[in-house]
Design brief:
alpha+beta, six-stranded antiparallel β-sheet, 22 helices
Amino acid sequence: MSATEQARLNSIERHDHRVRVWSLAGVMALAVGVAAGSLGAVLTEGAWWFPFMTVVMVTFATAAAVRRTRRRAIVGSAVAVAAAALVLVLMFAADTAIAGIVPTGETFARFAQLASDGDESIANQRFPADADTGIVFLICLGAVAVAIAMDAAAFVIRKPALTGIPLLILLLVPSLIRSELHDAFVFAMTSLAYVAILLVASPRVSVRAAWPLVSVALVISLTVPVLLPSVEPAAELGSRPGLISTGVNPIINLSSDLRRNAPLLALRYTAEGAGEYLRVAVLDEFDDDTWRPSEGDNESSDAVDSFPEPAGLAPEVPRTEKTMQIEIERIRGKFLPVPYASSGISGLEGDWNWEPEGLTVSTVNSNSKNQKYEVSYITPAPSIEQLEAAPTTLPEGFEKYLALPVTLPTIVGVTAKEVAGSEPTRFDQALALQSFFKDGDFEYSENAPLTDDYDGSGAGVLGEFLSAKSGYCVHFASAMAAMARTLDIPARVVVGFTPGQKKVDEETDEIKFVISTDNLHAWPELYFPTIGWIRFEPTVSVGTEPRFAQSITDDPSTPDVDESQPEPVATPTSTPTATSGARPELPLDEEPTTPLSGSVAASPFWLLLLALPILLLIPALVRLVRRGLRLSAVSRGAIAPAWREVCDTATDLGFDLSATATPRQQSENLSGQMGASTTNSLATLLASVEVAAFSPRTTPLRRTAVTASLASLRASSSWRARLRARWAPRTAFGPVERKR
């Protein structure tokens, strides 16, 4: 053969190699894209898809490009890891890196924070979950692990069949979260993509056939996410994100948090005197579906160091001034828990604003997580006489607090008139409504509304609730607020926390209150001109009813004391025997008997990362089992399995063997590679094999003869070859293509 022809053949061979490398990398990337369609069962939207596939494509493309010039496959995988890391820096921490790509210490701190945020978000959210930045980061991190594992299986270990293991892990993510979250269609499509990988990797498939296979896989990868139905949060148990994670309208998430199997620690605070209700959001718009905040209610530009006077509070209403120190643990989002009525906040990080009508506190660019701050607040203490004497004329603009949806069931207004229509004052009407729920036939239940299909806070569920007389705080608060509006009493619903569990430090006698997700609560606030907004508590067995002082005539004999002014009894305070949260099991003054979940539970993504090394041991385990079965067969008198085990062990160790050679030719070949001094046991074994093949006599073979031959093969190999044969055996999943 001339030099020109040889050069041409070498050029064709290099071209075929490049095409096969790129084809295999491409079809593996697209198989990952198909398998990732399974994540649609646990995530509510598809914004995660693009960063996920970007990481996957960069990883495979980099490895393939490096292998175009470098024959050592491990180099391609190593460079691919570095390229994937740079992509993660660009997407998630470019502002912390030099020139946007060179990581710094701050970059790694950002990655650690993102991983913590994602892990916590997974622990806190119900599924399908919102793919926030932390979760997307973990998904991309998992994409790198899956891509590198597949690349190493196909090019480093040279066992493309092993690429199915990372794909299977990706497919099983939804099932690890909840057993019923799996999609047979995605499984089927991934199986087809896996077959494409095996076909492209097979030396028996021509190079021309590779590109149509990649095209088919590409079509499947791009159409699967579109064909799959989008996942929408369902109004069922455990289906929505929790209040302590995100949410524009917290009342939507309240039912999921209340039904947690184990409470999560939300915050701690110290306060003067008894515990306080903490408000998170005020909901004043009421429609068919739910109560929600008014548009623009949380868009004030006013800083939180100073608040205005509470709406409607006249100077003659007694009040007390207090302070509270709050430490946020697990709450994440735009709302900040504060008591009513806050007058100033210090110690916050980020930009926070107060909303003028509800005096709630929120942010646009910051987060409530890990905030530590001090709140100054006043506690109005109106007397019963002042409340009864409140005028009925409302300030301008308060008509919105009387608005009712046209779909409100008739039973709501009829019941309100029956219960409180005959009361002389609006305050008496409010007390009658509260007593109707508290002292009537109603019972507290978080599950009954779900079972009877009237869960939620919208107008449509109130009729069912009043008929069933069973529900949780959302139903009680929504019903009382709606009934008050039918009586022309301005009303709204507040979402927040009940006072919590009191804990006393035995050494310092310091009193702290611990609030968990069990303390999440909703209650109504009613407005009385010259008094302002007053909290009421209609929920059975939960929280505490507000207490009001009774005014009396001033006693002339005690000029130093004005008895006509009521003692400042705080509206939101709680009695010693009142329950502490939206679940009525724990009294306020008792220690919690169940530890709160202060640490983040391990997410499925971290479990997968921990399980990956175990999964990589599967080839070694398969090979070990196969060797044991063969040796067991030898002990029972079989001969052929002994020589098959010798050949496979030699192949795993890197010896060259011909697939068409006879056992004697293979033995001679091995002897030449091993050295004559180490082949005595191999010769003994060969003799037994040849006798069994060509003689009718049965020649027993000792198991020790086989193990001695295997030991001589290992002794003739380097430590690297022995290590590779043990942990990454080439013959684990069937015979390899041997030299002919």
